[in-house]
Design goal:
The chain is mainly alpha-helical. 69% of the residues lie in helices and 0% in strands. The chain contains 12 helices and no strands. Helix 3 crosses helix 4 and helix 9 runs antiparallel to helix 11. It is globular. The termini are far apart. The relative contact order is 0.21. Required for maturation of urease via the functional incorporation of the urease nickel metallocenter.
């Protein structure tokens, strides 16, 4: 009887720990988390303004390419590196400096630094020494990756949630920029599950040597957005 009771207790504790990690991750990556995601479009507003994206299929292909070759890929690599360092009790200051330096335009810089700083401020509701070890102005992938690692959240799950939130924010922004209905937005999210999964799997085995972007048009659109006459978003 004692052995059965001990086994039951261990199972209960493990389940609670997994559930808390999941709930924490869902909170951090939720649209309700105060990172100001609704303020940014990841350069999509510039692409729509210049006619490069005009309908759902174009948006889906744009996001697929971004995940594979653009800033989202670099963010996934930086996230994974920050997770590993925080998990090992190492600092992420040089990763934060690198991530900030890799922002290819003023819009990208405002977006990643603004969201990262807001993330750190809100995530302090879940105390951890990692928050004091990070700069107060910190790129989003470093902030979110280090927080996930320090709190023992599985890297694969954390990366998937991070990239899903990024894609979801882009789709939500596009619903305001394009003649897309909610159903079409949901269809795009469903179609992007495989590209997100592939990026997660690649990033899991990545190092900082794998950083690099070939999505030149996305970066150019982000730069052009800075001088666009009429704008809904900051990036």
């Amino acid at each position: 009887m004692a052995r059965a009771t001990a086994s039951t207790a261990i199972t209960t504790v493990t389940t609670m720990t997994d559930q808390r990690s999941l709930l924490r991750l869902m909170s951090w990556m939720s649209p309700a988390f105060p990172t100001g995601a609704f303020t940014y479009s990841q350069g999509l507003e510039g692409a729509v303004h210049d006619g490069l994206i005009s309908e759902g299929d174009g948006l889906r292909h744009w996001l697929e390419d971004s995940l594979a070759f653009g800033q989202p890929w670099n963010d996934a690599v930086l996230f994974a590196e920050s997770w590993r360092r925080a998990r090992a009790g190492e600092d992420c200051l040089d990763v934060a400096e690198l991530a900030e330096a890799m922002a290819g335009s003023a819009g990208r810089h405002i977006e990643t630094m603004g969201q990262g700083s807001a993330f750190l401020k809100a995530a302090r509701e879940w105390p951890s020494p990692v928050f004091d070890a990070l700069p107060s102005s910190c790129p989003l992938p470093v902030a979110a990756g280090a927080a996930s690692g320090a709190h023992g959240i599985d890297l694969s799950a954390a990366l998937a949630a991070f990239l899903h939130a990024m894609v979801s924010n882009a789709v939500q922004a596009s619903l305001r920029l394009l003649p897309l209905g909610q159903q079409q937005g949901v269809a795009i999210m469903a179609a992007l599950e495989e590209p997100v999964t592939e990026t997660v799997e690649r990033a899991m085995d990545s190092t900082l040597d794998d950083l690099g972007s070939a999505a030149f048009l996305a970066e150019i659109m982000s730069m052009r957005h800075e001088t666009q006459y009429s704008r809904l978003f900051r990036s």
